[in-house]
Amino acid sequence: MTPTHGTGGLAGDAVGAADEGERRGGPAGGPRVAYDAEGPTGHPAEQEAELHAGFLAEAAGWLHGLFGPADRGTAAVRRILDVGSGPGVASHALAAAFPEARVLAVDRSAALLARAEARAAEHGLADRITTQRAEHPEEFARSGPVDLIWTGNVCRHLGDQQAALRSLASALRPGGLLAVAERGLPPRFLPRDIGIGRPGLQARLDAAVEEQVTARRSRLPGATSVVEDWPCLLASAGLVPAGTRTFLIEFPAPLDVPVRRHLHTRLHGLLADVGERLDLVDRLTLEQLLDGDACTGVLWRPDAFYLTAVTVHTARLCRPRESA
User: What pTM did the predictor assign?
Assistant: First the structure.
């Protein structure tokens, strides 16, 4: 499962070299790309998850509030499912926000689940965060009933997004909450004019990524076109929308080294994944941005920044579970 979200259940949009689910070992539907392998600075999914840890903690706190005061029955969150957990950063945030709950981290990548287990052990949460490898949406319900499901950037990598939401909804107990992080605003990290190549590179990269995402979705097994109105999709899954919130993630210039490394990884992925959709000038500009020895490279330039927004949609199961 994705990403990640990877996401660990993370938000953001398609991330260049591959959309996030494929980088993190998300659901089947497309080949993994070359830079999926872990490098000297860690797996790309974990790099991004670390940058988004603050957002995930804030989002988990918001979800806690949606369950109401601690003296209400609906606040008794005991079981949480993190679908597309990646390296488990979201699982950690959820465990911290709901101290009485146990979290099951689900992903298709055994390597990232191992990282989730290691992270849980490092933070003294090994007894509360466990992992499970799963490949298909119909496996979601096998973990139920649960009180809260978090899923980041998962549905977009599944052919039938509506069916995936129904599968997730079937794992909820009455009163349980489903939180879906999908889309938002793609990361921005460069000024319009960066002094090399043609101005507007960022916008052209975004357009190329959107074209790639559309092409990938058309090749997914059982690909079904839907209007990506997430509150409506959640309602069609038998849930009652409970609120939507957008979270800002910002690292202003000048960037620290970990953020620069993540941007370097991201740009490397963009060149590998959508380079053929760009003209020669833009491909050469990307190569200059990836030059680790050049002052114009993203590892050194003072104008690089990181700004993105993540939208989280929630819905509640407000009726008794149907008997089989």
Answer: 0.85
